[in-house]
Amino acid sequence: MVHVEVDTAAIRGNLERLRAWLPRRVALMLVVKEDAYGHGLVPVARAVRDLVDWFGVAWVSEARALRRAGIAAPVFLMIPPVGTELVQAVREGFHLPLGDLGMVEEIEAAARRAGKQALVHIEVDTGMGRFGLLPEEAELAWQKLDRRRVEVVGLYSHLSSASGHTLEDLHFTRAQVWWFRKFLEEWEHRGIEVPWRHLANSAAVLAFDEATAPPLNMVRIGTAAYGYPEGPGQPPVELVPAARVWTHVAAVRNLPRSWPVGYARQYVTPAPQRVAILAAGYGDGLRPELRRVFIREQEAPLLGKLGMDTVAADVSHVERVQRGDRAVLFGPGISYPDWICPVLVPVLLSSPRRWHHEAPT
Ligand SMILES: Cc1ncc(COP(=O)(O)O)c(C=O)c1O
After folding, report:
1. Which residues 6+ apart lie within 8 Å of 185 measured at CB?
2. Cα angle at 126 between 123 and 127, to 5 degrees?
3. The domain 8-226 belongs to what CATH superfamily?
4. Which CATH architecture has domain 243-333?
5. For this structure, is 228 an active site residue?
6. At what angle do helices 103-114 and 83-91 cross, to 10 degrees?
7. What residues have CB less than 8 Å from 348, skipping those under 6 apart?
8. What's this model's pTM, rounded to 2 decimal places?
9. Residue with the nearest Cα to atom 9 of ligand 1?
C-alpha cells in the first residue's frame, strides 16, 4: 500500500513563481490531464483557479468534472474526442484540437448537430509526429473550414525534446521553436489573426525564452506546476514537489551471504546484508525504474525484482530500522531524475490520496 499526500499550497507557490517568471501578456494553461498528473483534478483546480487562465485536459469527462466543480475558465481538450462525445464537447463549449485533416469535416458535422459553433485550435506538427497538421495541411484546413460552424481560436504546436539534455535535443527544440514562429509570422503577414498561439510546455517555459516571446501568448504547463523540474540546467524558479509518497517497512531481514532476494533470484547478497521488505509493488503503480527509497532519511537502494505488493531495499547502513518505518518514494528534498512523470504518475493514480491545502509542518 502506498500513501500519497498532495500539498496544494506547493502547487500554488509553484504557479505564483512561474507566473512571475513569465511575461505578463502570456496566458497560463495548467495541464490537469490524467487527474492532474495523479495529484487530483478537482482539489488541484479548485485550489489554483485564481492563478490559471485555461485548463488543459485529455478527456471530456475531465472537462465536465471541472465544470461541475464550478470552474468557469476555458477548457482545452488535448485528445480529440470521437463520435457523440465530439458533438457533446462542441455543445458544452470545450476547446478542441484539430490535429488530423480528416477531422475538418467531422468537426463541422459535430457543430451542425450540436447547433453551436465549434471552438478549435489547429495543431501544427513541427516534429512531434503525434497529433498535428503539416504546414501545408494546416493551410488546407484553414481554406476548407466553414467559419459559420468553426471558430479557429488557437494555433499551437508541441515540443518533443524540450526536456532532453543532449546537444541534439537542444538543436531539435530550437528548430521546432524557430519553425513554428516562422509559420506564425507567415500567417500573420497574410493578415490571418488567431487569438491564441501556444507552444511551450514546462521545460520550454523554463529553458527556451523564444518559446514564450511574441507572437506566442500562451503556455501549457504541467510538470513544473506540480513541482518537478524538467529540462536542461537548473530551473530559474524554485519548484516545490507537491506529492509526498511513502509505503512502510513490512519486515526486516538479516540475510547471510549468497542469499537470493525475490523472484527469479535477480539479486543475491554479496555479503551478509540487512534487507527491508517494503509493502508496495507494481500493483501500487511502482515501476522498475524506481531504484531507491528513503528510510530514516537515508537512501536505501531497491534490490531485485519488483513484486506485485513487495519490493526489497538494502538497509545495511540504516540504523534502527524496524517494521512500520516509513519508506519514502518521493517528496520534497528528494532529487528527481527526468523520468519523474512516467514513474510518479502511475503511483499517484493507483494510490489513496489525501490533500493538504496548507503546507504540512
Ligand atoms: C499537448 C501538451 N501540451 C503541454 C503538456 C504539458 O507538458 P509538461 O508536463 O511537460 O509541462 C502536455 C503534456 O503531456 C501535452 O500533451
Report:
1. 215
2. 120
3. Alanine racemase (3.20.20.10)
4. Beta Barrel (2.40)
5. no
6. 60
7. 4, 6, 35, 37, 38, 39, 243, 245, 285
8. 0.95
9. 222
Assess whether 263 carries a catalytic annotation: yes
User: Where are the chain's structural domains?
Assistant: 8-226, 243-333
Residue 30 CA from chain centroid, whole number: 9
For the Cβ of 221 lying below 6 angstroms from any atom of ligand 1, the answer is yes
Calpha distance 105→312 (Å, rounded): 55
How far does Cα 303 stand from its chain's mean position?
28
Tens digit of each residue's pLDDT (9 = 90 or more) over 45-70: 999 999 999 999 999 999 999 999 99
321: nearest Cα among 254, 232, 228 = 254
pLDDT recorded at residue 332? 81
Give me the pLDDT at residue 129, please: 94
Q: Which atom of ligand 1 is nearest the CA belonging to 78? A: 1
Q: Which ligand 1 atom sits nearest the alpha carbon of residue 123?
A: 1
Segments of the chain scoring below 70 in pLDDT: 336-338, 359-361
Distance CA 153, CA 216 (A): 13
Q: In this predicted structure, what is the pLDDT of residue 75?
A: 98
Measured in whole angstroms, how far is the alpha carbon of residue 167 from the centre of its chain?
A: 24
Listed in sequence order, the residues at least 6 apart from 97 whose beta carbon sits closer than 8 Å to its beta carbon are 76, 77, 78, 79, 80, 120, 121, 123, 131, 156
Looking at ligand 1, which residue's alpha carbon is closest to its atom 8?
A: 222
* Residue 57, ligand 1, Cβ within 6 A: no
Mutate to test the pocket of ligand 1, among 18, 30, 34, 78 (most ligand atoms within 8 A of CB): 78
Indicate the SS3 state at residue 226.
Answer: helix
pLDDT of residue 336: 65
Q: Number of C-alpha atoms within 13 angstroms, CB side, residue 254?
A: 6
Quick one: cell of 94? Answer: 470545450
pLDDT value for 160: 96
